Amino acid sequence: MHTETFTFKDIDQLEIFVYHWSLEDRQEPRAIIQIAHGMAETAARYERFARSLVQAGYEVYANDHRGHGLTAGHPNQVGITGAEGFARMTEAMAQLTDIIAKRHPGVPVYLFGHSMGSFLAQQYMYTYSDKVRGVILSGTNGKHPPTLRVGIMLAQLLASLQGSDHRSPLLMKLSLGSYNKPFRPNRTGCDWLSRDDAEVDRYIADPYCGGIFTAGFFRDFFRGLVDIHLLSNMERIPKQLPIYIFAGDRDPVGGMGKGIPQLMGMYDQLGIEQVTCKLYPDGRHEMLNEINREEVTRDVLMWLEQQPSLVAQVE
């Protein structure tokens, strides 16, 4: 597998760092998979998944979001996302899709979003859906409770009093603090990520993973979580857009499996025609890093194989 990295400038002239994984011989791919990673992690963590995709004839692009990974530039800058961070991340994803389209004219692009990246992808679905042929949502959730608006007000208050770049242990605790409780007794503070201890330890050891995020990040993130499930926005999602959702039924981000059927129901009420879902028994948040990750990857590849743009290539 060939690995390339490059950068591009977003709307604020911030250098966005990108990984590109492809076959060594650089033959034309069947499709492009664009990955949007989650909060407090990096795109580099998707190299193993990318290898499986590349071996199946795809190419993979994945950028580090602002405030993350090599876009942040240094571990002590992780979590600082700037003004309108949530929207700017989605805008940068659309810019990357345009770069991909120029590099690979006529090749279909599929968007894969995990966790925070899945919520960015949900925004992308009603803002830039004409750029992609389908969307895969991993470790996602449906509509959040009304108490999220309290979180917005608290984040706004902290940002006003202490600055948008103030790192907030309080907001971290309120948003993620309960995730490990179902897995007591806990071996680490990140047991909720996976049943694979080695994967959890690898996450903890990565200086670009974890950390305390800022009041400004949470303000914009919480606002984004409200906006993506407003009916006026969701009605803009094309009815023919293929969507694949997968998660573990022990994923606290998805309400221990309860949020996924709720999201499916929302899409059904909107009349979206091609929505499929798989919940993995006992799976936690990072299904690509779970003990059954090979099964999960095969299921993603199977869904891709069934997409009209790829079926047509075979025929």
From TrEMBL:
Any one Pfam family match given in the protein's UniProt record, by short name: Hydrolase_4
Gene3D superfamilies: alpha/beta hydrolase
Superkingdom of origin: Bacteria
Residues of the Serine aminopeptidase S33 domain: 27-291
The protein's name: Lysophospholipase
The organism of origin for this protein: Paenibacillus baimaensis
